């Protein structure tokens, strides 16, 4: 159910915890900023906290390491930047630029830790750019590896399976590719691709018990759910998804959901049926041009953020209704 309406358009939402407080970073290209909202535990609402100027922001990725808060701001025009929260003056300070020759048209950012080191990867959707991996050291983030050049990458997903870190990169021009981390070289090496799915907008993973699944969303054609079986993928389900830019699995306690957005119709929320080993229709949500769905557990409230490219950003709350009365 709708819990809060945020009166602005946005295209990404990233929850994070810093100094024991819950925040959300939202990219707002129309307002030329990254909005940082803070959860108010008394009012049970998100409130304005700060803004980072961002001319054409497509993604604002917070990274919390030990006691430092960084925000990677990816912009379509004018380069991309990294900000750090300065506790001495209580504001965000720009600490470095990201090489605009490598990252020309960013589309997605993922951040993760491998063997104690922090990394982030930016998917680049320009023909002349390449998806790039950066690593944090004492002084800032440094370029670590160029991945998958010249393929117009749309999305990147970090997956750890059997203790092996992997990256899945979706692109406009070929099936999603898999990279596996080589611990000796401290680099990702190509390992194959995911089936015969071309033009995948977004790739996301989820687990049910020991099984690992991938959700592959497409703007034209059907989106798919596949089960990852080591070296191969078994197709489980196809979902009609005309106009879908986002397909996001998320779990609330024991329930596994999947939100499939659409630019032309309602967003469909599906619920995983363990016996059938597939998703069944659960609910429709009215979100205009959704660009992300992010699950946020806020103390005793479970939220789902739905950034909209064309209308207000919506915050939904998960409610359990007792029908036995």
UniProtKB/TrEMBL annotation:
GO CC field: synaptic vesicle
InterPro entries associated with the record: EAR, EPTP, LGI_related
GO biological process entries: regulation of exocytosis
Keyword annotations: Glycoprotein, Repeat, Signal
Highest taxon in the source lineage: Eukaryota
Pfam families: EPTP
Protein name, per record: LGI3 protein
């Amino acid at each position: 159910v709708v819990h809060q309406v945020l009166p602005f358009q946005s295209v990404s939402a990233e929850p994070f915890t810093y100094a024991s407080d819950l925040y959300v970073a939202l990219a707002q290209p129309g307002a030329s900023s990254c909005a940082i909202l803070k959860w108010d535990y008394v009012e049970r609402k998100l409130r304005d906290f700060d803004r980072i100027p961002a001319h054409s922001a497509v993604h604002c990725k917070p990274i919390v390491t030990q006691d430092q808060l960084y925000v990677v701001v990816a912009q379509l025009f004018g380069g991309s930047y990294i900000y750090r929260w300065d506790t001495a003056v209580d504001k965000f300070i720009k600490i470095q630029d990201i090489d605009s020759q490598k990252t020309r048209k960013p589309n997605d950012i993922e951040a993760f830790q491998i063997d104690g080191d922090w990394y982030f990867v930016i998917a680049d959707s320009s023909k002349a750019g390449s998806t790039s991996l950066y690593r944090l050291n004492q002084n800032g983030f440094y370029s670590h590896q160029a991945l998958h050049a010249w393929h117009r990458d749309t999305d990147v997903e970090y997956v750890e399976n059997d203790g092996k870190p992997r990256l899945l990169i979706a692109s406009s021009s070929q099936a999603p590719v898999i990279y596996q981390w080589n611990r000796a070289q401290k680099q990702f090496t190509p390992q194959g691709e995911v089936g015969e799915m071309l033009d995948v907008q977004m790739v996301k993973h989820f687990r049910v018990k020991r099984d690992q699944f991938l959700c592959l969303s497409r703007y034209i054609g059907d989106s798919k759910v596949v089960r990852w079986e080591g070296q191969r993928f078994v197709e489980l389900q196809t979902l009609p998804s005309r106009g879908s830019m986002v397909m996001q699995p998320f779990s609330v306690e024991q329930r596994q959901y999947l939100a499939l957005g659409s630019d032309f119709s309602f967003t469909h929320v599906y619920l995983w049926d363990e016996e059938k080993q597939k998703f069944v229709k659960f609910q429709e949500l009215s979100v205009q041009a959704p660009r992300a769905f992010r699950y946020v557990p806020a103390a005793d409230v479970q939220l789902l953020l739905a950034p909209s490219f064309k209308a207000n950003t919506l915050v939904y709350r998960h409610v359990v209704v007792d029908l036995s009365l």
